[in-house]
Amino acid sequence: MPRLLILFATPVVLLFLGAAVPSALAQDVAWPDYELQRGPAGGQTLERGPGLYISPIKLAACWLLLMVWVKTTDWVNQDCQRVRQNYALWNSVAFFPFLLIGAIGLRLLPMFAVAYVLMVLAWLVPLIVYIVVRNGSVEQQQRVLTPEHLRYVIANAGHQFGMKIDATKKAAYEKGAPVELSAKGGADDRADNANLVLARQSPGYVMLKDLISGTVDKRADALLLDFTEESAAVRVQIDGVWHNDDPLDRESGDMILAAMKTLAALNAEERRKLQSGKFRAVYNKVKLTCRLVSQGTQTGERTSLKFDDESRKFHSFKELGMREKQIDPLLEMLGGDQGFVLFSSPPSGGLTTTIDVALEETDRLLRNFVSVEEHSDRERYIENVEVTTFNRSSGESPATVLPKLIRTYPDVIVVRDLADQATAEILCRQVQERRLIFTSVRAKSAPEAMLRVLALKVPPEEFAQVISCVLNQRLLRKLCPQCKVGFEPTPEMLKKLGIPAGRVEALYREPKPEEREKVCELCQGIGYFGRTALYQFLMVDETVRQTLVNEPKPDVVNKASRKAGMRTLQEEGILLVAKGVTSLQEVTRVLKQ
Q: Is pTM, for the whole model, over 0.85?
């Protein structure tokens, strides 16, 4: 029952209570009779008795009960939607018994105590029944009125009034870092809850919480465990670069791995075969999807844990680091009615984020957007983009679902991964039907991305006719703004970089070990803080199209792309070096990958 209905019912119940006052709220069982009094002229008048027929105490008790009922019924309404209970059923159960007793019980019963007890039961019994049922269907930490929950409530209330209340008596799994873990990957919610309970009983559960909190505190977005007979080497990935961390003893590593596999619905006893899954964590109010991959090796086992921050979102190309001269033509193409937009990057190059931003930057209200995704690897939800899934493990591909999807007459089709000839040919034909296509391939440059599509055996004439633009990207680290070191470049260096003399007074680099007086608090001594994208944009012209048809060779296509106005990734990187965003060493490292 919506909160508005509860508030509307409040005055209704009060009216019924008012009607019931003569019987139940009176000081005596019945109202005193009116008395006949003789008037001064000998006539008779009807006079009232001594009064005081309403009991303030009883009325206050009814008012207090009513307010408690409104509060708890509103909580039931909101809670049953949070924990996915049948809110229509439970709102009725919590609402109508009390309403009926309030309307009828006080009016019919002459004894206030009996009527009041019935009203208390009409409020309390449905509430208890709901709590018992909902506690049986949720995780342990979500249950209410348990000893742990009551300790938390009392401690929280005490802190609000400046009281120090000891609520440190925790279950074993509640100890350690303040990380809240939840299981994923089970057959259903019940299986996930069972896996969570099992993981909490593991001695590695608390150690896993500590490991996750320590890794996230280092700004790492991935963790790697390499198991040997005696230990587990630990490496963390910070801004795309791996760093060694303190190793774990083999026993602790095994217990942590068992807890992770249990949360991800994997076989904790299997140490050789490839397994992958995911679970979730909440730390410092940040929601993380933890993607786990484990594979046996010659020395033991290698396990990677990648953290996807669900709250880390970008909404514009400018936030990603794209230059204005690249943004304007790209947005013009994305806003068109027809075309083939090809995104590309090496693995872990930030391609998913860029496609998300491309969708965010387009008008999705006046056009019908559809996206084709693998059902077990769904992308982030984007408003007004209808998603159709396929099951690769069952032999399906985007080409399997596209024919049916096309019959819905979409304006824009998004296929995240262009992996087969059939899908590529369907998308090329859809451009000819005046549709806009977003898709992507893995490639090191924009010219190579076009050749990757041709490698799928797509007819060159057909692809060259529809390709509109290509965006290739890399991710590189930004210099730490607090500890980066400026230096004056030599004329030879500027000439080699292609920077005109006098254009740049200083370049920047990370500090050397001997230059650090103390560890930088921002970057923790790494010298880099955060990442930005390095973009290479190609607007395909007729020269490039003819090259794709007549001589699709890397050097020839690259030369034609340069004539079309494309800058190389090296030139784009030097621009960031000249602006002091990153270092020459970082650009060199990224371009060598």
A: no
